[in-house]
Amino acid sequence: MNRRDFITLVGGAAAWPLAARAQGERMRRLGVLAGGAENDPGSPAATAALWEGLAKLGWIEGRNLRIDFRFGAGELDRIRADAAELVSLAPDVIVANSAAATKAAQQQTQTIPIVFTAGGDAAVNGLVRNIARPEGNTTGFTTSEPSAAGKSLGLLKEAAPHLTRVAIVFNPELAQTAPSFIAAIEAAAPALAVQAIIKVPVRNAVDIVRGIDAFATEPNGGLLMLPPPNAGFVETINQLTAKYRLPAISSSRDIVAAGGLMAYGTDLADLSRRAAFYIDRLLRGAKVTELPIQFPTKYVLVINVKTAKAIGLTIPESLLLRADELIE
Hints:
By secondary structure, the protein is an alpha/beta fold. About 45% of the residues lie in helices and about 20% in strands.
C-alpha cells in the first residue's frame, strides 16, 4: 500500500468531520525527509500514524496541506541532496525521520522549523544542545537511549542462553550514538556471561559479508545491530544470520518482519502520532523553543518464531509471553 493509499485510509474516518474547519484555512506546505526507502516495511505504519494524527488536528492533504516527500534510501549523499531540494520548496515545516536526515536539513536551513520523529539520542547526536528549550529551528522525539542497548543484549542472551560472543553491527556514518550504545553493551556483558564483544562497522554489503563471515568462524555467537537500520542491508544480514544460524536482535521491527529473529525498540508509529501535535503547533505559529524534546514512552519486543525454528532455537515461554508481537 503506497503513501496516497494511506492518506485516503486515515483521511476518511478522521479528517472529514473537520472538513468545514479545514476549508477556510490557507494551504500550508510540509516537507518530509525520510532517511530510508519508500518501500521499507515499517514505513507504512509510521506514515499512517502521522497522517492520522494530522487529520485529527484538522490538516488534510489537498485541502489545507501540501506534502512533499523525499526518500534517502540510507545513502548519506542522497539524503543531503534531498534536504537541499526540500528546502528549496520553502515548506512551512520539515519532518525528518532520522538523525542523519535531521542533520542534513539543519545544514540547509536555520529558519524553517524541523521536527525529527526518530532522532536517536538527540543530545549525543548533536541535534540540539538544550533538551528543555531547543535552540535554533529543531525539536522532536528521541527514539532510543544507551540503556536500551544493554536491555537488548539481555533479551538476546535470554533467547539464546548458549551465547558467549556478540558482534555489534553498525554503520559509523549514520550511527552517531554508536560509542554510547557500545559502552552500555560492554557494561551489561559481564553479568550475562558474554565474554567477547566484537565491533563490526559496515558501510556497504561487502563489509557486512566480510564481518559476519569472520565472526561466524567461532561458535556461540550472536549479533546485535545498532540503530538506525539500513534498508539496503536487511536482506544481506538476514541471509547471513540464517546461513550461520546466528541469533540476532535489532531495534527495528522491519528487520524481524523480513526474516530477522528479534527486535526491541521504540514504537515508531507512536512517535509519529505524537509528532503530529508538534507539527500542528508550529503550523499555527508556535516557536521551536516552546516545544521541548520528547523521550520514548513505549518500547516493543517483536519475535519471529518461524526464524527461531529455522536456526534451531527454542525461545523460552517466559520470553514469548512478554513479546508485544509474535511473527509466525
